Amino acid sequence: MNTWVAIGIAWAAMAVLMSLLWYVQYKRHNAGIVDIAWSFGTGLSAVFFALTATGDPGRRILVAVIAGLWGLRLGSTLAVRVLSEKEDGRYTMLREKWGAKVQPFMFGFFQIQAAWAVLFALPMLGASTSGLPLGIIDGIAVAVWLIAVGGESIADAQLAKFRSDPANKGKVCRDGLWAWSRHPNYFFEWVHWFAYLILAIGSPLIWLSVMGPIVMLIFLTRVTGIPMTEARSVKSKGEAYRDYQRTVSPFFPWPPKRRESE
């Protein structure tokens, strides 16, 4: 299938899906469903690109499998969290900021997420157009994928366990990976995109896969990830979180600094 036709089909499908979910958000007042849809949508778009691309069949299947599993894991994890808790503080802040115009702005926000789902599936498209047969380099890519998804799963599990204890309400999680990075889940999510860059070696569209880690790093550290999450955490946890900011690396895992009280 022509690359531009495939991209157009994926975008149209995501635009329709996000329009429907915007209405669900309007009725239920929980915009967190957009995160679930983005995760599943990016994974499904990647599978669609892989199955309709023109690269080596074995590599296309490999990309479809790992991208699909990534989207399924992330989407399922977010679904459990979003559907069992009140609306994420990030979206509560947006509602307060947008005021009376919240629903038109929210519709636009959902449509931007539809476009981003396709945008972030393009590195998988780049990997799927490589004509090289599967080899050792692909094994390295799978190893990177396993480390990244495994690390993110561990970080998510550690945070979920911490939050499940009522005694930790209002406290900051410093357990496990969270003692070395304030956002280990974001860090391993970023590492995950290097798997598709490795798989794209030999592809005429490798530049799409090169953009994956770059764009994801910008989004996680400068746009929708750390800035919004930390603003909410400071607002809800105050000095406890400020101390966490002073002593623990924001993104890349690193030994923590000695706390002032120690």
Explain what you see.
This protein is mainly α. It has one domain. Helices cover 73% and strands 0% of the residues. It contains twelve helices and no strands. Helix 2 (33-52) packs parallel to helix 6 (122-128), helix 3 (57-84) packs parallel to helix 7 (136-164) and helix 8 (184-192) runs antiparallel to helix 10 (206-223). The model has no long low-confidence stretch (mean pLDDT 93).
Summarize the SSE layout with pairings.
Blueprint: H1 3-28, H2 33-52, H3 57-84, H4 89-98, H5 102-119, H6 122-128, H7 136-164, H8 184-192, H9 194-199, H10 206-223, H11 226-237, H12 239-247
Helix pairs in contact: 1-2, 1-5, 2-3, 2-5, 2-6, 3-7, 6-10, 7-8, 8-10, 11-12
- Portion of residues within helices: over 70%
Our Rg estimate from Cα atoms comes to 19 Å
Largest sheet descriptor: none
Please report the number of helical segments.
Answer: 12
> pLDDT average, as an integer?
93
Distance between the termini: 62 Å
Total of domains: 1
Indicate the structural class.
mainly alpha
